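Slide 14.
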Amino acid sequence: MEQLHEKARIMDAMAVDRAIQRIGYEIVEHNKGPENVVLIGIQRRGVPLARSIADHIRAVEGTKVPTGTLDVTFYRDDLSFMKERSGGGETDIPFSIAGRNVVLVDDVLFTGRTVRAAMEALIETGRPRTIQLAVLIDRGHRELPIHADYVGKNVPTSHAELVSVRLPGYDGGDDGVVLLEKVRAEGEAHGA
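Slide 15: predicted structure.
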């Protein structure tokens, strides 16, 4: 049986906050202001990240950026392989995305399958001008030709490692990002 062991702390709460601020600045700069931008968090941890980015943009620019939430569970092409089949939450986009610059927000970019599912789900709600992607962590290992426009931190990983994002007010406990490693439980290596 495999267990998870904390291998390294990648970011503490302050580093996460700095990355969110930088992503907010980059979004505003790239889109020449926040006026036509909407942020949509991918359930689960993309939602509080999108809200934090929107709060930062409002504090700096004085403009409230609309935020929404997107559940992509039933758009995934690997649903039969997922251990957790229940939905991550609900989709709530209380504004039109037509002609807007939509920034999808997620915590970790890995294979690209979640983002592909998010784009499919998003297109069903309207036709945005652009779809951009902001992630806190890009860990590599893409299976689809998808890249993030805004990245908090690139973290090369192996397939035996997992990235765990713990957000303020969302997960409880120690906020930040840690790298977890799958290890065999005692006794397994010896055939027990």
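Speaker note: Residues 81-86 have pLDDT under 50 and may be disordered.
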